[in-house]
From TrEMBL:
Residues 79-103 are annotated as: Disordered. Keywords: FAD, Flavoprotein, Monooxygenase, Oxidoreductase. InterPro entries: FAD-dep_Monooxygenase_BioMet, FAD/NAD-bd_sf. Its cofactor is FAD. The keyword Acyltransferase does not apply. The keyword Aminoacyl-tRNA synthetase does not apply. This is FAD-binding domain-containing protein. It comes from Streptomyces badius. Residues 92-103 have a biased composition (Pro residues). Pfam families: NAD_binding_8 (PF13450).
Length: 103
């Protein structure tokens, strides 16, 4: 697996739990959890739950308010407030250190 960030580590955990032998290659000498946090949408939260990482992401903070994508003229394409109850828990923000440590 190339990269020891949140995406690379998550993929490595998922593949390892499916029986693959995985090696994570990272340029940095240590995984320090420095950097930007991540916002996880309901589908990402369900994916992490399915590979046993639900407790790790429960340390995050549900995002207040409405997040989403808008067109250049300001019209909504999608909003989290409209999808949270339909697709699962609300989008959650995680700082980098706890998410990296959990993985």
């Amino acid at each position: 697996m190339a990269g020891g960030g949140i995406g690379g580590l998550t993929a490595a955990v998922a593949l390892s739990r499916r029986g693959w032998r995985v090696t994570v290659c990272e340029r940095a000498s240590a995984l320090t959890g420095i950097g930007a946090g991540i916002v996880l949408a309901p589908n990402a939260l369900r994916a992490l739950e399915s590979i046993g990482l639900g407790p790790a992401v429960s340390a995050g903070e549900p995002l207040a308010g409405v997040l989403g994508l808008r067109t250049p003229d300001g019209a909504w394409l999608s909003r989290t407030g409209a999808t949270a109850s339909r697709y699962g828990p609300p989008a959650t923000g995680l700082p980098p250190a706890p998410s990296t440590a959990a993985l």
